[in-house]
């Protein structure tokens, strides 16, 4: 094998391994971030559920007749 062919082969192999390494690095970073995103989504979902329950309670308070009467007395 000629020395130029050997040098070309070594350079090609180095480039291929470099590309493969970057692909694996990005894949594992993606997996790590997607797991974190799933945790964040679960936390935000729980927070939304809690806020919806609070809104329901506030709607019940505001729609009660006693609340409206109190507001009318305050406005007088």
Fold blueprint:
Elements: H1 3-63, H2 65-75
For this entry, give a set of tags.
single chain; 2 helices; 76 residues; rod-shaped; mainly alpha
Structure, explained:
This protein has 76 residues and is mainly alpha-helical. It has one domain (3-75). Helix content is 95%, strand content 0%. The chain has 2 helices and no strands. It has helices spanning 3-63, 65-75. The termini are far apart. This is Phage shock protein B. Keywords: Membrane, Transmembrane, Transmembrane helix. It comes from Pseudoalteromonas xiamenensis.
| Number of distinct beta strands | 0
Cα-atom Rg, whole angstroms? Answer: 32 Å
Taking pLDDT < 50 over at least 5 consecutive residues as the criterion, the unreliable ranges are: none
Main sheet makeup: none
Distance between the termini: 102 Å
Categorize the overall geometry.
rod-shaped
- Given helix and strand content, the structural type is mainly alpha
Estimate the helix proportion, in percent.
over 70%
Number of domains: 1
Work out the helix count: 2
Strand fraction: under 5%
Global mean pLDDT:
86
Query: Order of helices and strands, N to C?
Result: HH
């Amino acid at each position: 094998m000629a020395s130029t062919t050997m040098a070309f082969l070594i350079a090609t192999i180095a480039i291929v391994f470099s590309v493969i390494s970057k692909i694996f690095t990005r894949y594992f970073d993606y997996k790590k971030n997607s797991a974190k995103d799933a945790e964040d989504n679960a936390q935000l979902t729980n927070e939304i559920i809690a806020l919806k329950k609070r809104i329901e309670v506030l709607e019940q308070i505001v729609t009660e007749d006693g609340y409206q009467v109190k507001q009318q007395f305050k406005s007088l």
